[in-house]
Amino acid sequence: MAAAGAPDGMEEPGMDMEAETVATEAPARSLNCVEAEAAAGAAAEDSSAARGSLQPAPAQPPGDPAAQASVSNGEDAGGGAGRELVDLKIIWNKTKHDVKFPLDSTGSELKQKIHSITGLPPAMQKVMYKGLVPEDKTLREIKVTSGAKIMVVGSTINDVLAVNTPKDAAQQDAKAEENKKEPLCRQKQHRKVLDKGKPEDVMPSVKGAQERLPAVPLSGMYNKSGGKVRLTFKLEQDQLWIGTKERTEKLPMGSIKNVVSEPIEGHEDYHMMAFQLGPTEASYYWVYWVPTQYVDAIKDTVLGKWQYF
């Protein structure tokens, strides 16, 4: 018969408390040898694991790939790896250079790159992309995009020196080039006149001397056709008279473009001389067997450098 005061299936109040009290007050059972040994081993393992969890992780060696991988996502101070690059077309002196360059580099750094490619010093560069590229701003700030054309204007040191070469040096080079050519007196067109020999009435020459023009015409010379010719310098009229047996041609000295001369090979005390009457060498009027002491005076007089003595 069920105890009175509690329905079936339900525990009376206070039963759980009594059970807990009984379990707490129950004396602990002593462990046998095998159980004690197992418990001691488990405790030792727990203690070792706890000590290991408190130790710091070992440092990665300098060359370890894992350490490098941890930096690769950031910006590399070395300039290139890990930085966003853009493709640029650098155009200088009609030459294109395709380069990859960090987008966060400044205009000043871009000039250094151009220097390494072209040899053009940064101080002599004008770098343009939609205007002059500022040295203190990055390519990103001036909105440079991949494939952009960067125009560079400037001259190398060698170019500057070449432009500033003295005119005298250039003239000397031109004269040296002329000296390499075949002497005029050996050319066929002149040889046929010179082969006639020295005219019988040629004026005497003084080798190594320079004299002013004589008061009388210079005579005893040949022209290109082998006929006799004389030169009269009319200073008061600023004219040169070229006289032959057939006629006398009166030329304003200002119309004569140039005067060239060359010693006659084997007879260096006489020159062959040409007066340029037009724009090209085809207009040369040749005179042969001019005494050497009058050559400079003739050039100075015709070209406007003569003086009264």
Question: Which short descriptors sum up this protein?
Answer:
four-stranded mixed beta sheet, single chain, 28% helix, rod-shaped, alpha+beta, 11 strands, disordered N terminus, seven-stranded antiparallel beta sheet, 309 residues
Helix vs. strand class: alpha+beta
Treating each run of at least 4 consecutive H or I residues as one helix, how many helices?
8
Largest sheet: 7 strands, antiparallel
**Tally of DSSP β-strands:** 11
| Average pLDDT taken over every residue | 76
Question: Any chance you could write out the topology, listing elements then pairs?
Answer:
Elements (H helix, E strand, L loop, with lengths): L14 H11 L7 H22 L10 H5 L15 E8 L2 E8 L4 H12 L7 E3 L19 E6 L3 H7 L3 H14 L7 H7 L23 E6 L4 E7 L4 E5 L4 E5 L5 E7 L2 E10 L7 E8 L3 H8 L7
Parallel strand pairs: 1-4
Antiparallel strand pairs: 1-2, 3-4, 5-6, 5-11, 6-7, 7-8, 9-10, 10-11
